[in-house]
Amino acid sequence: MPGRISLAAVLASFVLAGPAAAPYSDAQRSYPTILAAYRHQDIGGLDRIAEMSGDEIAGAVRNLLEAAPTPGSESIDTLRAAAMLHTDVALWLAKQQEVTNAHHHVLAAARLVDEADTRTGGRSDFGRRWYAIASRHFHAAGLAAWSAELQTRARQRSTPSPTEAWARGAFDQGLRFEMRAATAGPLTRFGDKGRFHGVDVIALQWLDSAAGKYQEALKAHRSLTEAALHLGRVRFLQGRFREAGAPLEQAMAAAEPRTRYLARLFLGALAERQDRFAEAESHYRAALASYRWGQSGALALAQVLDRTGRQADARAIMARHLADSRGLVVEPLWTYLLTPAEDDGRMLHELRAEIWQ
Amino acid sequence: MTRILIVLLALAVSAAQDAPRFRAGVEVVRVDVLVTDGNRPIGGLTAADFDLRDSGTPQRIQAVTTGDVPVSMLLALDTSTSVKGSLLSRLKEASNAALDALGPADRAALLTFSSPVTLAADWAPPSPSMREAIADVQAGGSTALFDAAFTALLHRDTVPGNRSLVVLFSDGADTVSWLPSHAVLDQANRTDAVVYSVVLEGAGRETTLQYRSGIQLRDVPDRPVFEAAPFARELAEATGGSILVAEGGERLRETFAQIVTEFHSRYVLTYTPEGASDPGWHPIEVKVKNRRARIVARRGYTK
Fold first, then answer.
1. Nearest to A337 among B206, B210, B216 (CB)
2. Mutate which of A195, A296, A346 to disrupt the B interface (most B C-beta within 10 Å)?
3. Could A307 and B150 be called an inter-chain contact, meaning their C-beta atoms sit closer than 8 Å?
4. ipTM of the modeled complex
5. CB 3.0–4.6 Å: which of A30, A184, B208, B303 could bond A202 by disulfide?
């Protein structure tokens, strides 16, 4: 379109630079084809999606829903991938002030997220995060009404029980305390017994407060795996290793890939800290199996291989990571202490990575 | 048991002097050494001019090679947000200057890092595509200095026999790495790469806790989680390299070219350890006999 910035170029501000993909001819370009390419990080066809009318969008989504077999994890991923595709298009159009067209894509994305959740038998973490993160980005794009609409829709689709709501509130407070610990000042020293020396007392106090909140959250809602993840991590940082393992193992079984990845990463660090290198290696490999784009997972595995005398294996791990990622690094550790309301695009990028092939 | 500097000798060690042939499977150690008088490299030295000790035991130097051994140079460049603008332009010019200073048999690779660590150009002789990769570098994000240094030391060239040079540039402190600095320093003791660190003046920022792994290496039980000593200097000194401070980035081009030129003037001393076969840390001491000279070499290696 004359005078318009290339959609692909603008989406580069949301998507880290990725590998060049084979071009598709016009004849080949169709919604399923564009979607499949999108799942391989090829955003070249999104211009065409952006040009679709409301009726065309509705028709394409309807066709996708009918074609996607139920049940099946692949159909869930396909629907979520389509949701992310429409989210990206909606955000780009919103930035171009093309409000009406963008709104069609927002509604399409929400419908796809809801349908994916229906097919999994209930609310999913992906759905919860999508609503929170998308809402934040639409608000940042100056579309407060849409943001509010998504928040209303989120409340309508799932109303948490009072205990769930209370647990999440406690978790959020714990997150605030853990962030205060992280920025209070350096923890200066690990001693032989894993205890801190000359430590920043304020940081330790905040960690203690954070742990307390996470424990409260888990007491109210035992399956809040995020709280388990954070509790385990905090205990590890406090040097209370025996108390770190159990909550991290609980988080290891979480449904969402990013929580599983982080749990394995932290369990690996815990094992490595105690010289259980084989166990650490096993955890790091499992972390990468959960989340192959994770830079820290690759580094952690390479480092433990290198320090145990397997330099060639370590090199191979990093070489593969460097070749596979090519700048498309998605690292949940970098958003570990963020909430969706604070997302600068990295949490949105994590959602994309969960539907990549 | 960790071994470094093992050269399985199916190849001859080329040199200005006649090179001895070694039995295949013999473990040898290569030590990259800079010898200067003031700021001027001293040339023309032979094995007889050096006194080398491994764990305090004098060693017989079997070969001394100089600039005719090809170099594999990895440029590891900080491309965090603070590098944007004129500094990034100077960094690109400096990188090209480093490529220009390489010899015809030398090879190069380009690693960039902000939060992600990216292999912008893999090992190859300097080529137009590598210069395009330099031109395409963009800046933005945090600084995963330790993760990048680890990757740079690990991603060495697979061409056997080449000398490994890492030019590590950063304008600040680490802010987002998973690996602690001492993990990288520990790894450096297991490689024979030489690191030249190029830093800008100015205080580093303290890093926060949230990204750090929390692993601890037994060799350094009281190592601080956050380093007070500058990492870039420690890494350079541990590997027998140097640290250069490029004031405001004005002289980056000359600095990078100087690094490559100086590296070509270094000696590579090769020996088979005698009386120093125990596993663990092996301190190395190198001196030049009968004359005053400044020696820069790695502190030792881990076996």
1. B210
2. A296
3. no
4. 0.84
5. A184
